[in-house]
Amino acid sequence: MEHTTIKDCKLIDLRKISDPRGNLTPIEGGKDVPFDIKRVYYLYDVPGGESRGAHAHKQLYQLIIAASGSFSVTLDDGMNKKSFNLNRSYYGLLIVPGIWRDLDDFSSGAVLLCLASEHYEAEDYIRDYDEFLKYKGIK
Ligand code: TYD
Rounded to a whole number, what is the distance in angstroms from the first to the last CA of the chain? Predict the structure, then answer.
C-alpha cells in the first residue's frame, strides 16, 4: 500500500455513551472502524520524554486511541506531515498502511490503545526512513 497519503488517515469520533456512573465507548470491527480487528495492544508506563513508533507498516490498518492521558502522533507520507494530539478516550486516529508515524509527548499515566487489522508480523514493518521513502517512490 505504497500510494496512501496522510489524507487517508482521519480522526474517528467514536460513540460515547454518557452515564453518571461513568462513560463507555464501544468499538466494533467493520462498523466503527473500517477493518476487522485481529489484534489489540496497549502501550503504558511510557517515561516522560520518551518517543515510540518511528516506523511504517506495509499492510496494517490501525486505530489509535488515548484510552487515558494524552500523547502526540505525527503522520508522514513522505511528502506531507500532520500532527494530532490525542487526549480524549472517544476519538480514534485511523492510520492506513504506508504511513510513517512518530509518537511522543506522552503525559504521565497515558495509555495508548491500538486496534489492529492483522496479527503481529515483523516483516510488515519499515523501520528505516530512507527505505520508507524508497517504498513510497520518493527516493
Ligand atoms: P513496536 O511496534 O516497535 O513499538 P512502538 O511502535 O510502540 O514503538 O514494538 C515494540 C516491540 O514489541 C517489538 O520488539 C515488537 C514487539 N511487539 C509484539 O511482539 N507484538 C505486537 O503486537 C507489537 C505491537 C509489538
Answer: 16
